[in-house]
Amino acid sequence: MKTQSKSALPPLQEPPDGETLWQQIVALPRPIWILAGGLFINRFGTFVVPFLTLYLGDQGFSAAQIWWVFSAMATGGLSAMFLGGWLTDWIGRKNTMTVALVGGSMAILLLWRADSLPELVITAFLNGITHGMFHPAAHSLIADVLPEKRRVTGFAVVRWAINLGFACGMAAGGFLADRNFSWLFVGDAATSLTFGAIAFLTLPHGIRAARSESRWMPALRDMAKNRRFLALVGANLLAASLFFQWGSAVAKFVVDLGYPKSVYGWLMALNGLMIAVFEIPITRGVRRFPQHLVIGVGYLACGVGMALNGFAVSWWWVAAAVVVFTVGEMVSLPVASAYLSVLSPEKMRGRYAGALGLTWNIGQFLAPGLGLMLYEWQPGVLWSASLFVGIGAAAVLWKLGGVRAVDSR
Question: Model confidence over 224-239: pLDDT tens digits?
Answer without folding.
Answer: 888 889 999 999 999 9
